[in-house]
Design a protein that fits this description.
single chain; alpha/beta; 16 helices; 17 strands
Length: 414
């Protein structure tokens, strides 16, 4: 199987990689070139069909990270490591015969790397260093090197950014590019290939889906045909108004992550529930789908993965709730309070995302999407076992008693 990888990089990096393409087995590379790293995000939007994305460094990846997180394929970047630093320093000291490394200025994403290299070989002095990040404009990096050269504090600049290299050349500053070792490039691309293969194997795994149509619609054929087409599978009726589907995890993720709220509303005239299960076997996946259906409200969908994570409800939220826990502290809390791992996980997720430490029963009720009685029952169990306490009251402008303010007393971030 040939894996197609989109490489987002400078023209210089592309030329470097093209010299070693013959050593990359079962990999097809397509190049998307930028003049400056901040243009990487725009190039991601222009990607043609591919299996993964590889960036020439952490800078272009950082600019495109947000959009990459929404892609259905993996992305990776070439890490600047000790090998790159050592190779570059060895090359420049051999060719330029520098009397001291202090004559050099360098821009790095992680300056600590060069400290590690020099410490390992017993060097006490270090180059003039600039830590770079995506918020930094190219002219700031250029100014750093240029000013040091004008002040005669350096005789050579080393840069990690191709655009900075070109600018410094125009300013007649002696400059070299950071060398990306052949071995590091090959490793980075092969790692990207393996990530793509893993993603493909996961998406090809079996998934079981349940569709439950409610209401008194006489002819449901239109809705059933739409669901069948959407998930690329056949529907099998298991009971009145309930159907089962056999598909892949990739098909499920594709649908639930791509439908807009408006498209979701148009799926069926009748109220419906969608539930999906993943598992190591068809039996496990089927049971997980049945369990997911119990959590699902009308006109939404839930997924239970093979690791017993409840994902959803789609399309309104995409939370991940642990339906089981192995953390000893949480196991102890679940046993003492008789709360299910699912409810305990939801409470912890609420705590991590709620904007304030204190909260009311109403705040928790809205997050859990359960009745007030269920919410109060959960809070009572936590308070009774000292895992939560009432810390005050919230006055409302409506008639009635003030709302109690609660604060959790459990490890939130485990």
């Amino acid at each position: 199987m040939t894996i197609h990888i989109a490489v987002i990089c400078s023209s210089e990096f592309a030329q470097r990689v093209q010299t070693i393409e013959s050593e990359l087995s079962s990999i097809k590379l397509d190049y998307y070139l930028y003049n400056e790293p901040q243009h990487a995000a725009n190039l991601v939007r222009e990607l043609k069909p591919c299996d993964a994305v590889f960036f020439s460094g952490s800078m272009p990846y950082a600019y495109a990270k947000e959009i990459c997180e929404s892609l259905p394929i993996p992305s990776h970047y070439l890490h600047q490591d000790e090998t790159a630093i050592s190779t570059t320093l060895l090359s420049i000291m051999r060719g330029d015969k520098l009397s001291t490394i202090q004559e050099v200025s360098m821009d790095l994403v992680e300056p600590q790397i060069i400290h590690n290299v020099l410490e390992d070989i017993g060097f006490v002095s270090i180059p003039k260093l600039l830590k770079i990040d995506p918020k930094m404009e190219m002219k700031e990096i250029v100014h750093f090197h240029h000013e040091l050269y004008e002040q005669k504090k350096i005789t050579r600049a080393i840069t990690s950014v191709h655009a900075v290299y070109e600018s410094l050349k125009q300013l007649n500053v002696p400059v070299v590019r950071m060398i990306d070792p052949k071995s590091s490039i090959i490793k980075g691309i092969i790692d990207t290939k393996n990530m793509a293969l893993l993603a493909k194997s996961q998406s090809a795994k079996i998934a079981i889906g349940y569709i439950q149509l409610n209401g008194d619609t006489i002819d449901q054929s239109k809705e059933l045909l739409l669901f069948s087409t959407l998930f690329k599978t056949r529907l099998i009726q298991v009971k009145n108004n309930q159907f089962i589907m056999y598909m892949t995890q990739g098909d499920v993720e594709r649908v639930v992550n791509s439908l807009t709220n408006e498209e979701w509303k148009q799926l069926s005239v009748a109220p419906f529930k969608l539930a999906f299960g993943y598992g190591k076997s068809i039996e496990d996946a089927t049971q997980n789908a049945k369990d997911a259906l119990k959590f699902t409200k009308e006109n939404s969908a839930n997924i239970i993965t093979e690791k017993k994570q409840l994902k959803g409800p789609y399309p309104h939220q995409n939370k991940s709730i642990e339906l089981r826990t192995k953390e000893p502290k949480l196991v102890e809390i679940a046993k003492r309070t008789a709360l299910s791992p699912a409810n305990l996980s939801k409470v912890l997720l609420f705590s991590r995302t709620h904007p304030a430490i204190e909260f009311t029963a109403y705040d928790l009720e809205r997050f859990l999407q359960v009745s007030r009685r269920t919410t109060e029952r959960i809070l009572k169990k936590l308070v009774d076992h000292q895992y939560a306490k009432i810390v005050g009251e919230e006055m409302t402008y409506q008639q009635g008693r003030p709302r109690s303010l609660y604060k959790l007393n459990i490890p939130t971030f485990v």
